[in-house]
Amino acid sequence: MKGKSTLSLMFLLLLLFCIKVLGQGYFALDVSLKFPEIVDYNLPFISFESLEEGFSYVYQINLVDGSYSQTFTTKSPVLSVNLENQGTYKISAVLTFKNNVLFFGSSDVTVNYDIPTKKVEVTMTPNLVKILLTLDVDDVSALTGKKVKITYEYPDFTIVIPLNINTFPVQMELFPGTYRFSIIEEKDVNSNSILFSTDIGFQSGSFYSLMISFKNKKISLLSNLAKMSKIVAFDATTREVIFEKEGKYKLSNILSINGKSNVQWSSLLYPGISEFFVTFLNGEITAINYVETLPSNVRVLLSSKLSSTGGLVSSNFDYITVKVSEPYFLFVLDNTYRQVANLQSGELIRFQRHFDAIIVETNNGIIGPFGIKSRLYLKPLGINSSVEIVEKGKKKYFGSFEIVANNDGGLSIINELPVEEYLKTVVSSEMPSTYHPEALKAQAVVARTYTLNKILADRRYARLGANIDDSTNFQAYNFSPTNEKATNAVIGTRGEILVYQSKPAATFYYAVSGGYALSPEDVFRMKISYITPKMIAAESELAVFLDDEQAITNFLKNSNVLMLKSLGFPEAVNSYFRWRVEYTPEEILQRISSLKNLSVLDLSNSEDLKQKFKFTEVLADFINLVLTPNLLEERNATVISELVNDSFKDSSMMTTTDPSMIPTTEENFNMTEQKSGTYQHDYFDFSDKQHEVIVNIYITQRTPGKYVKEIVVETNKRLYKISDEQVLKLFSPNGKKVILQNGIVRSDFTTLPSSFFTVDVVKNDDGYAEKVVLYGGGFGHGIGMSQVAANFLAKDYGWDYTTILTFFYPGTVLSKVY
Predict the structure, then answer these.
(1) pLDDT grade, residue 44 (50/70/90)?
(2) Helix (H) or strand (E) holding 73
(3) Greater confidence, 43 or 520?
(4) Which of 49, 162, 170, 792 shows the smallest number of beta carbons within 10 Å?
(5) Do the Cβ atoms of 178 and 153 come closer than 8 Å?
(6) DSSP class per residue in 309-361
(7) Is 23 exposed, middle or buried (0-12, 13-18, 19+ CB in 10 A)?
(8) pTM of the model
(9) Residue 391 has what DSSP assignment?
(10) Residues 493, 485: contact at Cβ < 8 Å?
(11) For residue 368, which phi and psi values (nearest 5 degrees)?
(12) Using CB atoms within 10 A of its CB, is residue 798 exposed (0-12), middle (13-18) or buried (19+)?
C-alpha cells in the first residue's frame, strides 16, 4: 500500500514537470459576465451572447503584485484562461461598441493548489451618460403634433418623446456615443416630416444639458443650457439647489446671476422662484438668468404645534392625513419627476415615514416606498381645489403641497399658494371682522408687504423649502376661516404694498401698544429709518413726554381711560393697554440666584459706603428723577448707567472679611460666569437668603426706544445689576397672573405681554419690599403698526387706510406693483 502511494506521488510530480516543460499553466480560470436586466434602463437591446458588428468584450487579468498582466478581446461573455502562478488576480471586463465603453465590471479572485480550477462571475454595470433635456417655447400651440426623436449609432434604438410642456423636463441615462436628435411632425399615420436634426456625441462619465428652443418659429437645440422649473429648496453651505422637477444640482464657485458675478446668491434666490435659465459647466451651474419680478406665490411651512401665543413650536408630523375636496395629482421627485397617483374628490390619503422611506396610503393601497430624500407633491386640478388636513383640525387649505422628510424623524408639509389667496386667511386671522374696513385695508397692505419682504429676505427655512411658517412668528395663517370683510380688504388693495428704496418695506405689526411704539433696534437688532419710537396718539401736539423714568412710571400706572382718550390715545379702552404682574420679594430673590451674567456689589459695610459715596441715595435720586432743575444739565452729562457702572468697578465699594471673595480681575469686580454658563457661586453664597430682603428695584438704563436694558436690585446685603435678556427672565410671568386693566386675569403667558413696562416696589413700615409690581402697556413686540390703534384711528378719527399707513410707516410709498 505504501509503495502504491509513493508511485502515485511520483506520477503526479512527473505530470506537473511535463506540464511545465510543455508550457502549460498550472491553474485554470473561468470568467463569466453577469449583466443587469436591460429593461431597467432606457437603453438599446443588446444580445450579449452573440455580439453584432462593432461590439467587443475586453478582459484585463492582472496579478496584484504586478508580475502578470494579460488582455483578451473576444465576442464571448465567457473567458477561460490558464495561469502559471498562484496568487490574487484582479479581473476587469468591459463591453465596448465602437470604442465606447457600454458596461464595465471587476472582481478579485485567489487561485492556488487547493483549487486548480477557479470560477468567477463579474457583475457588469452600465456606463451611462446623464442627460437633462428641457424645453423653451414662446407659443405652446406650436408644439401640436411635434415630437423629438433620438436615435443611436446602434441600429433599432429609438426614443420618441412628445413635445408637450407636461412631459418636460426629461432626464435620461444613455450609453456614450453619438446620437441624432430630430424634431419631427406627424403628417399622417404613416408619414412624418423632419423639421430639425443634429448629431451630438456624449462621452462617458459626463453630464449634458440640452434645451430645445421654439422661439419665433425657429427650432434649435442648445447645449449646456436649461430652462428650469422652480427652486424648491437650497443649502447655502453646500451650494446645493433642489429644483421641483429637475432634482438637485450644485452651484459653481464662479456663479453669475443676471450677468453679475461675485454675488451673494442665497440672498437673491429663494424657494419658489421660477421660470429661469441656467448654464452648466462640468455638471455644475455657472450662470442663472431670470426676469426680476416680485413673487406671486408664497410657500408656507405648516405647524404641528403652536405656543399659547401662536408661535411655532414644531413643524414635525408623525404622519399627514389629507382629504381632497377636488381632484389632485400626486407627483414624486426622487431620481426623476413623475406622476404616481390621480386622487379623486373625497379621497383620503396618508403620508407616513417608514424607516428610511416615505410611503403613501390610499384607497387603492400603498404607493411607494420612496427614498427618504424624495419630495412628494400634491397638485390641484383646478384653482379652487382644496384639501382638509386632519392633523390641522380639518382646516381647509388651498393651493399645492409638498411633503418632505425632516431632520426630526418625521414629515413636514409646505403649502404653496398665490399671495393674494394667502392674504385672505392672514387678514381674517390677524384682525377681527368687526374692525373698521379702512383698518382691514391697512392690514391687507401691511400683510402683503410683509409677505413679499420675507420671501425676498428671510432664508431660515430655505433648506426645508419654505419662505415663512404659519405661526405668529411671521403671520397667523389660517387661524380663522376667511370672511367677507377680510376678502374685500384684500381684493380692494390688490397688489398694493409699501415701498422703501424700491423694495418692499419691513412692515412689522402687532396687536396693541401701550401708547408708545418701540424701536426695531431694541427688539430685532435692526435699524429701520421709517419705524421710530414715538407716542401712538391721534393728536400731533400731545403734551405728554416720556423723557424720564418717573414720567414713564406715571404714564404706565395711569389707567384712567377717559383721560387717556382725551389726550388722543386711541387704544386706551383696550384691555391690554394697561396690565400688571405682581411678585413677592422672595420670588425675585429666588429668580436672581438662577440668572447669568450678574454683576454683584457687596454691601456688608453699607454704612461706610453710604457715608463715603451716598450711593443708594444718589442712585435713587437718579432713578426716580426727583432732581431739581439745576441738576438737569449734570444728569444729561452723566447717564445713570455710567454712574452705576463706575461704582460697580470701584474696588473700594466692596468690603469683605473673606479674602477668597476678593475679585482679581482688572476691573476688580466684574460679572463672573462658569464655563458651563451658570452663575458662579464662589463670590456670593446665594443659598443664604434668610436675612436678605429687597429694599428697592431701579430701572437704571433704557434704550432710546424706552426698552428696559438694565435694572439694579438693592437688598440689605448687596446690589445686583441685571441686564438685557436677563431682565425679561427675572420678570417672566410663567406661572403668574397677568391682570389686564379691565380686570381679566390671564395665567397662560410665558413671556411678558410687551417690553414696555416699569417696576414699582411697595414697601412695608420697615422700608423693605412687601411686593414688586410690574406695570406695563401693550401686547406684542411694539414695532410698526398697532392693529388696535389702526381700528380706532379709522373708527373714531375717520382716518382712511392710506393715512393710517403714513402714520405708522412715514417715509414709505404706497405702490401698486401688480
Answers:
(1) low
(2) strand 69-74
(3) 520
(4) 49
(5) yes
(6) TS-EEE--BSEEEEEESS-EEEEEESSSEEEEEEEPTT-EEEEEEETTEEEEE
(7) exposed
(8) 0.81
(9) G
(10) no
(11) 115, -160
(12) exposed
Q: Per-residue b/e over 406-444, b at no fewer than 16 CB within 10 Å? A: beeebbbbbbbbebbbbbbbbbbbbbbeebbebbbbbbb
Q: How far apart are CA 252 and CA 232, in angstroms?
A: 19
Q: Write down the residue that cell numbers 395665567 correspond to.
A: 747
* Cα three-residue angle 83-87-90, rounded to 5 degrees: 80
For 276, 679, 681, the CA distances from 685, given in Å and listed in that order, are 65, 11, 6
Residues 6+ apart with CB under 8 A from 37: none
Which among 387, 403, 216, 431 has a CA at the least distance from the CA of 315?
403
Residue 601 CA from chain centroid, whole number: 44
Each residue's pLDDT tens digit, 359-380 = 999 988 999 899 999 999 999 9
Helix (H) or strand (E) holding 772: strand 769-776
pLDDT band at 618; cut points 50, 70, 90: very low
Sequence letter at residue 189: V
| CA–CA separation, 92 and 125 (whole Å) | 12
pLDDT at 786 over 80: yes
Residues 449/505, Cβ–Cβ less than 8 Å: yes
C-alpha distance from residue 688 to each of 239, 681, 684, 719 (Å): 56, 11, 9, 15
Does 660 have pLDDT greater than 90? no
**Cell 404706497 appears where?**
814
Residue 299 near residue 416 (C-beta atoms within 8 A): yes
| C-alpha cell at position 712 | 439694579
The cell numbers describing 158, all together, are: 429609438
Rounded (10°) angle between helices 437-457 and 484-492:
60
Provide the residue count of the chain.
818
| Whole-angstrom distance, CA of residue 493 vs CA of residue 818 | 10
Distances (CA, A) of 116 to 11, 66, 91, 528: 18, 21, 17, 84
Task: Please report where in the chains the cell 395711569 appears, as a residue.
Answer: 558
Grade residue 607 by pLDDT with cuts at 50, 70 and 90: low
The strand pairing partners of 370, in sequence order, are 358
Single out the residue of 695, 669, 430, 710 nearest to residue 549, CA to CA: 710
**β-bridge mates for residue 720, sequence order:** 600, 713
